[in-house]
Amino acid sequence: MRLCGRFATKKKISNRELKVIIVNMLQEHGINIKQAASDLDISVHRAHNWYYKKTGMTALDLLWIMRKYEFVRQAVESSLSVECR
Q1: Which terminus, N or C, of the chain has the lesser number of Cβ atoms within 10 Å?
Q2: Which residues contact 27 (CB under 8 A, 6 or more apart)?
């Protein structure tokens, strides 16, 4: 996945780096672990791993987050539409 703009200054970003960026976005919007778990219908333990451990998100997790949170979807879509240089 190639992400530019808000996400990174380098051309490629790892799953863990993407997870950190998305978790930071969720926290900026006041979404805590329990709220994310409830909104996404996942276990609190799974959400806790994103927030506090070096656990990456699955592609399905990312799709659920993009579906639930418009601000994440817009950020990901806009970064993909920007041509990386």
Answers
A1: C
A2: none
